[in-house]
Amino acid sequence: MTIRDVATRPYADQKPGTSGLRKKVRVFQQENYAANFIQSVFDVIDGRDILVIGGDGRYFNREVIQIAIRMAAANGFARVVVGRGGILSTPAASHVIRLRKATGGLILSASHNPGGPDEDFGIKYNGTNGGPATEKVTDAIYARTKEIDRYRVVDADEIDLDTIGETHVGDMAVEVIDSVADYADLMESLFDFAAIRAMIAGGFTLSFDAMHAVTGPYATEILERRLGAAAGTVQNGVPLRDFGGHHPDPNLVHAHELYERMMGEAAPDFGAASDGDGDRNLIIGRGIFVSPSDSLAVLAANAHLAPAYSAGLAGIARSMPTSQAADRVAEALGIGLFETPTGWKFFGNLLDAGLVTICGEESAGTGSNHVREKDGVWAVLLWLNILASRKQSVAEILTEHWARFGRNYYARHDYEALPVDKADAVVGGLRDKLDRLAGIEVNGLRIASADDFSYLDQTDQSLSRHQGLRVLFDDGSRIVFRLSGTGTEGATLRVYLERYEPAGGDLGLAVGDALKPLIDAAEALAGIKVHTGRERPDVIT
Ligand code: G6P
Ligand code: ZN
């Protein structure tokens, strides 16, 4: 085996964001761009045992996997484990890393962003616990990308990624595994498949939109084969390199076909969708959308109905902008509630320390300690387990939940692809006056406090500052302003709006109506229209 040291020059823009390095494919296609980043990861991490590699099958996936395997061999890894066809959903990759006690893994995805030659790609490193590298590690990787002057690679023929089995590249073993089997077995060990199967056999109907992304094979195996759902339950189940030209983002805008089906006359009992790499979820009952924040709260309140969680939860974690619905559940259960910055990586330490069992984010992510990523199919199965156990509809479960805990009306308004200076003007302007806001009345609402959220991780004492501006009102309502860390074009401003209505209050309002006073208050506080010239958000979720 001949190892070559290839001279290279650093790129200045390889700073990992909320979820790894995410750029346009064309950026990744620049000379040595992917190789620089991968070498920087290898230079920073300890251990050269097993490296797991897999991606969501998007455009450029196979090319980068070929490079990564040859670089892993040159960098002294003992073994690479790769999903067949280069495919592993993000939660499945997390599971394989844990199952195989791997050094870590490279996950190739840009999640819910579109794919194709003019669209997005991404590389993320997950550590030995199966979770996204912590900020300490991603900062070190970034520092390394700024100095890198060579990468190591071996010359090898094109590696066959489509045949299950073992080959070698130099001294390193390359093991191609079934992308689905380990993950499907894990799901079967967590949930009461017999009860779900019986519910389905009894006439319960469901529809799962895989959005031509990675969950197609997973959902087909689990829902149709193992749980007996009718053929065709999984729609758009064949993963495509460009996701059929769509945004594989399971929200009401991009999964509108599913939404319309669920609101129609012949709606099935349950509808769900997942994103490009399989970590997000959308849950819709017949005639009712479940907001991700409510979904987290309902799952936490009912998780004990599934075998894996029958002993109860250690605690719940949510990202700061996620609604406080889960907080009420934690309070009722007498367990801890942790509020972290946006980004699944912040949950890893809490899960590893056993402080929490379930985590969730407003951005359609929910998961548990079974892996170290959020998990779309897992969320669907936990819902199905709960439905099978309670023998009620999604609407009944949600209504009963609000009647018990009160309702956190919630929406997120996104202003996408803003010029960076304009987005900074909104956030900077508000940040400058934050400490003068307490006690002031805006649009009839009195501000109790306002701050720039920072998070101290109690397991490793690391501090993350500037994680979003919070304005809290006397009545428990809240507005959060934050810039997205996952966009690849300009800046995206997110405004998160939340109003709490206690049990016994007005629980059946339309969300837009319930939030109207807060929407106006957000404008009065931040002057979004004035600074950006935008009349309305691009996306409301
Ligand atoms: C990814 C991350 C999530 C995060 C979401 C939104 O899906 O895995 O943890 O919540 O992006 O992040 P953003 O910075 O765009 O709001
Ligand atoms: Zn994703």
Strand content: 25-35%
What would you call the structural class?
alpha/beta
**CATH architecture descriptor of the largest domain:** 3-Layer(aba) Sandwich
End-to-end Cα distance, whole Å, is 52 Å
For this structure, the CATH topology of the largest domain is Alpha-D-Glucose-1,6-Bisphosphate, Chain A, domain 3
Unreliable segments of 5+ consecutive residues = none
Integer-rounded radius of gyration = 23 Å
Helices, by number, come to 17
Shape: globular
Instruction: Provide the number of structural domains.
Output: 3
Under CATH at level 1, the class of the largest domain stands as: Alpha Beta
What is the CATH homology-level superfamily of the largest domain? Alpha-D-Glucose-1,6-Bisphosphate, subunit A, domain 3
Sheet with the most strands: spatial strand order = 2-6-5-3-4-9-8
The mean pLDDT is 96
Care to describe what's here?
The chain has 541 residues and is α/β, with parallel strands linked by helices. It has 3 domains: 3-179, Alpha-D-Glucose-1,6-Bisphosphate, Chain A, domain 3 (3-Layer(aba) Sandwich), CATH 3.40.120.10; 183-405, Alpha-D-Glucose-1,6-Bisphosphate, Chain A, domain 3 (3-Layer(aba) Sandwich); 407-540, TATA-Binding Protein (2-Layer Sandwich), CATH 3.30.310.50. Helices cover 33% and strands 26% of the residues. It is built from 17 helices and 27 strands. A 7-stranded mixed β-sheet has the order 2-6-5-3-4-9-8, sandwiched between helices. Strands 20-21-24-25-26-19-27 form a 7-stranded antiparallel β-sheet. A hairpin with a 7-residue loop joins β25 and β26. α2 (33-44) crosses α3. The longest helix is centred in the last third of the chain and has 16 residues, at 511-526. It is globular, with a radius of gyration of 23 Å. The relative contact order is 0.11. The mean pLDDT is 96. The structure holds 6-O-phosphono-alpha-D-glucopyranose and zinc ion (ZN). Residues 18-19, 111, 319, 342-344, 361, 363, 365, 484-486, 494 line the site of 6-O-phosphono-alpha-D-glucopyranose (G6P).
